[in-house]
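Deliverable D4.2, example record:
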Amino acid sequence: VWIDGNINPLEFALLEFNDQERFEKRDGDFFNYLQPEMHHSNTPSDGINVYSFSLFPEEHQPSGTANLSKIEEIFLTLWFADRSQEPGLPEITITDINSRLFIFAFNYNIMRVTNGLTGLAYNG
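Output generated by the structure prediction step:
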């Protein structure tokens, strides 16, 4: 999928934890425009899609989490738009061996100190 900042190839996305929807199926504009507008300081180029479990992901202090250490199955389902019939737009081919999809994630853990003993908050 070639991202040149002109189009968002993502039509829909769905995230499931253990067969439970984390959010209902959302369109690409939600991840490309609405999520960044609500939780970030700027909106990325078309085709850069984001989702945050945090209310304020750019702040140092955590403001939301998803404890994935106890989740057995995580499915991210992506639907890509068929742009082949739209004049002037490049065709999206995701079956090509050279196609790449990058997913970036941050992982944090919390060290708790109780009565002089320490332990991790998210220990799977």
